[in-house]
Automatic annotation (TrEMBL):
Superkingdom as given in the UniProt entry: Eukaryota
KW Plastid (keyword) present: no
Required cofactor(s): Mo-molybdopterin
UniProt GO MF annotations: heme binding; molybdenum ion binding; molybdopterin cofactor binding; sulfite oxidase activity
InterPro entries registered for this protein in UniProt: Ig_E-set, MoCF_OxRdtse_dimer, Mopterin_OxRdtase_euk
Identification of the protein by name: SUOX oxidase
Gene field: Suox
């Protein structure tokens, strides 16, 4: 399966101040494959940034859980 992901912070519709924004979420891939990358767009898909995966990496072929990710991005 392709990687699926959800944003958990900030919440939908939240007002965010200008400056640095931390976007957080989780991702899963299915089939025992680990998540190796999460791309995040903050402008409707025009540009993409690679999020940092958090936590320990699973044993190859035994990635049956989700992975946490985080992205630090500037906000105008």
């Amino acid at each position: 399966l392709p990687v699926q992901s959800a944003i958990t912070h900030p919440r939908p519709g939240a007002a965010v101040p200008a400056g640095e924004l931390t976007v957080k979420g989780y991702a899963w891939s299915g089939g025992g494959r680990e998540v190796v990358r999460v791309d995040v767009s903050l402008d409707g898909g025009r540009t993409w940034r690679v999020a940092q995966l958090l936590g320990e990496r699973p044993v190859p072929g035994r990635a049956w859980a989700w992975a946490l990710w985080e992205l630090q991005a500037p906000v105008a």
